[in-house]
């Protein structure tokens, strides 16, 4: 059976998983709206001249940008845009936590509602939330980010149930990446060292934390995003996507075992 060509909006497509997914979907014949956080990133896309890809700036916290996106004929929305924050919950500046929730949860939900209105009217569409495996198990010193993903995953699950009851032909699913070497993780863990210094409760532990993080990156991070991009493509093309897609499989299995063990 011929693959149905879809019009896909991806947020945060300026780099990393979002960019790689946009390239893969375009190669498979879909029309991709690769939205980016900055104009420079959009210009970079345009210079490539990739067939099937239309790039433009979409800051999901900016309502004028969201309104532009809401006017597009979208079959699949991939909510990928996110910001990272790290640090101890005992002392992290609350404005940093608030900013993370504003982007990763509230702005994402606002854009989803705007796109969803048209999908419900047309009685078809798919909403994909890019969460994270750290949105399923507590991760010390990563919770300012992980809490937003816990909340996003829960919201997606509930929205899926609500739309099923509505019987409107719109599907919702969650994609949970593990550790991939895109630069996002390094930037995120570094945010805490902007303020966890001489006045931090953990000031004497900072060298140990940095060494531990370097070892974890070396052990866990995958250089290729191929496995998670495959999951997003599968969710995009499925007529009835399941609730949850995760990759890499061995990290997803580890998370599942931790949850069984009561973590």
Mean pLDDT equals 96
Can you count the helices? 9
CATH level 1 name: Alpha Beta
Evaluate the radius of gyration.
Answer: 18 Å
Shape: globular
CATH topology, what is it called?
Answer: Rossmann fold
Write the layout of secondary structure elements.
Elements lengths: L6 E4 L5 H12 L3 E6 L2 H10 L4 E5 L5 H8 L5 E4 L14 H29 L2 E6 L12 H24 L3 E8 L6 H7 L15 H15 L5 H12 L6 E4 L1 H12 L3
Parallel strand pairs: 1-2, 1-4, 2-3, 4-5, 5-6, 6-7
Helix pairs in contact: 1-8, 3-4, 4-5
Polypeptide structure, described:
The protein contains nine helices and seven strands, in the order E-H-E-H-E-H-E-H-E-H-E-H-H-H-E-H. With 263 residues, it is of the alpha/beta class. It has a single domain, classed as Rossmann fold. Strands 3-2-1-4-5-6-7 form a seven-stranded parallel β-sheet, sandwiched between helices.
Summarize the entry for a quick read.
The chain contains 9 helices and 7 strands, in the order E-H-E-H-E-H-E-H-E-H-E-H-H-H-E-H.
Key terms:
49% helix; Rossmann fold; 14% strand; 263 residues; 7 strands; alpha/beta
């Amino acid at each position: 059976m011929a693959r149905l060509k879809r019009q896909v909006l991806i947020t945060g497509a300026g780099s990393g998983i979002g960019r790689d997914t946009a390239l893969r979907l375009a190669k498979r014949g879909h029309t991709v709206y690769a939205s980016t956080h900055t104009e420079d990133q959009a210009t970079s896309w345009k210079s490539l001249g990739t067939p099937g890809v239309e790039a433009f700036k979409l800051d999901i916290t900016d309502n004028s940008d969201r309104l532009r996106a809401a006017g597009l004929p979208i079959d699949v929305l991939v909510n990928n845009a996110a910001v990272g924050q790290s640090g101890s919950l005992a002392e992290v500046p609350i404005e940093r936590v608030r900013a993370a929730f504003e982007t990763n949860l509230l702005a994402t939900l606002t854009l989803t509602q705007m796109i969803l209105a048209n999908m419900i009217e047309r009685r078809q569409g798919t909403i994909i939330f890019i969460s994270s495996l750290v949105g399923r198990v507590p991760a010390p010193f990563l919770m300012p980010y992980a809490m937003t993903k816990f909340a996003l995953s829960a919201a997606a699950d509930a929205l899926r149930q609500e739309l099923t009851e509505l019987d409107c032909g719109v599907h919702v699913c969650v994609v949970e990446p593990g550790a991939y070497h895109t630069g996002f993780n390094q930037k995120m863990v570094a945010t805490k060292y902007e303020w966890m210094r001489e006045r931090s409760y953990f000031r004497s532990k900072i060298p140990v934390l940095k060494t531990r993080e370097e070892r974890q990156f070396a052990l866990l991070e995958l250089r290729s995003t191929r496995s998670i991009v495959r999951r997003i493509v599968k969710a995009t093309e499925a007529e009835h996507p399941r609730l949850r897609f995760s990759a890499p499989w061995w990290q997803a299995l580890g998370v599942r075992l931790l949850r069984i063990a009561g973590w």
